[in-house]
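Q: Could you predict the 3D structure of Putative LuxR family transcriptional regulator?
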Amino acid sequence: MPLGGRASAGNLPYELTSFVGRRREIAEVRRLLSVSRLVTLTGVGGVGKTRLALRVAADSSRVFDDGVWLVGLGELPDPDAVVDAVLSALNVREGRGGPPQALLVEYLTARKVLLVLDNCEHLVDQVANLAIALLRACPELRILATSREPLGIGGEAVLRVPPLTMPEPDQRSTAGGGLGHYEAVNLFAERAASLVPGFAVTEDNQDVVAAICRRLDGLPLAIELAAVRLRAMSVEQLLQRLTNRFGLLTSGSRGAPARQQTLQWCIDWSHELCTPAERELWGRLAVFSGSFELDAVEGICTDPVAAEQVVDLVGSLIDKSILIRDVDATGAVRYRMLETLRDYGTERLQETGEFGSLLRRHRDWYEQVVLRAESDWVSSRQVAWIVRLDAEQPNILAALQFCLIGPSEADAGVRMAAALYPYWRVRGRLREGMRWLAQLLAVQDGAPSVERIRALYVLSVLSGLHGDPEASALYAERGGAVAERLGDRTAAALMDDATGHHALITGDYATACECFESSIAVFRQDGNLLYLIWSLLGLATASDAAGNRTRSEECRREVVALTESRGESVYRGWALWGLGVASWERGEHSPAKKLIAQVLQLARSGDDRISFGGCLEVLSWIAVEEGAPRRAATLMGAAEALAETVGVPSTMYPNLTAVHERVEQTARRAIGDRAFEVEFRRGIGMRFEDAAAYALDENDRVGVSAGSDPSSLTRRELQVAELVAEGLTNKAIADRLVISQRTAQGHVEHILAKLGFTSRTQIAAWIIEQRQGRQS
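A: Sure. Here are the predicted structure tokens for Putative LuxR family transcriptional regulator:
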């Protein structure tokens, strides 16, 4: 289960170990959040700031109708990318013009959200400036930050997270193990018992355990690392070694705070307990950002002669709590290090003199990952590659950052960025791709090359999709000039394709068709499947806009044939969507629905939300013509909500805006503006999973289905639902009905569960509909 033991809106991670103590801190943070819109948890590294923040966030999730969202900043290499990191965490994807901060403000303005900004210490100025802008513009927003120092802005409430509670040095424990109310002792006991079956704090060892916790200053990270050693020694031996190491540490950096000395000692000590091979690998693993897979460790961090030892060494580092083992959604095993341990490993690595060479090997490895993904894109492994690239984003961005150090490295970065185009496109990360390509091309020496042409092609297309036709034209012109100098026919055809996309977004459909036909001829002759599909899809859209439906369908059917035989999903979905629209335009509703249903399944399997939103739009048109205007309004609402998330309107293709407006007006005339708005708001409130099930008719009781039965609610629950519709909080409902706030919250949760809803907004919309039904 997620943190808090309940599925909820947001992206909080799953708890892998028990949460111990912190009752007072949890209560205080929740109190601060009730009176301040920005709360920052500060303290020494390893004291548990992140874990405390996640626990409070999970416990508070019911209060925030639009979710609790974690934004990890510890691995962010670029200070200018803070806004992008928040947008990415919220799944707000680019596609519209305007500054990214304005897009974020627009998205959050009307939403009740808790943002958890984690590990801000290296980005304090940027995070502080963003927090000021968001809090001023978004009245329902709360921010919970973790940092080694406060953000230092007005209205900030700061809580310094203390070490876990522990017995005083002169305090004698009572018989029967009377230390259970000390958090540090409880944490040590729980972690030790998980590592050494049968371990318990007893009357015989409790004084030693108390001394260990005191020697570790109650720091959670230090306690967890120390508990691992019980696999090899007794608690008495552990205490003795701690005593010796403290003596060595206090003779070191006297100017550092005592707690930093303690944590530094704990990591030093864990490092010395590793074998030389384990120490070497620990240092080399610091080259990774975020999580990584075993093959990356073998390819980057080991010499060929030592490769056979990698599995054993990785296992040893997991046992010693240096590495954490995770399993992703596909079942693949990945590893990561706590930031404190990664920083320590970086220091050790820099002492060896091989840091620069390892960074280059890291870059070379992830360049090959990206290039393999592109070459394998039109295949049955496409969805797996999308998931893999999602997981590898921190490492890919770190590799791209390395390529900015100079012209000698920039060529590899340009290759990587251009190869990421299919991924950036399906994930809606248009601005991210544009930013990296512009930076890398600026660093590159500018010599004509196929790689430079590909980069200019991607920049041109992304700029056009992002709503900047001038930039699109500029990059297409530059790429064409380079291609002419180079004399490469494939490169020239690629720039014809770019020119076609520019003509398409500017409404010059005849030119677009001409350019795409030219590029298709070359790509077909060269056998370049990926480029051929891109041009076929472009020609299909341009031909459709130009009124040549026959040519449009020919292109789309060819794309379906090329992709279906290879098990590809994304481009097949785009082509089927166009065929579904064509069927609808001919009045063939049943074939159109079947085609769109296929696209929905493909889009859901690959989390292609841009395509999914387009499908919801078409299904709403079909629903109106089949006499189901309420369903159409709900689908339009769900499409609109999805468009806000991905940053691309569901009517992004030529001529579709007019269709949308016409169908919407038909639905409004059929059921009235008020009823339409009720159903539309229902769709807005749908989660992605609910919208998918609703659109595919997979569940008769989807979160906002029209058939929610009032008889399923008790009389008291109906009263509570009416008060929710009036906009009352749980506290206000409790005061009105003379019940406890906890009871009011329980009634609201029962209503949500019984009606299959996910937000109070949906309850309010449902109540309005029930009132209308009674009036009619």
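Q: Anything worth pointing out?
A: The domain at 715-773 is CATH 1.10.10.10 (Arc Repressor Mutant, subunit A).
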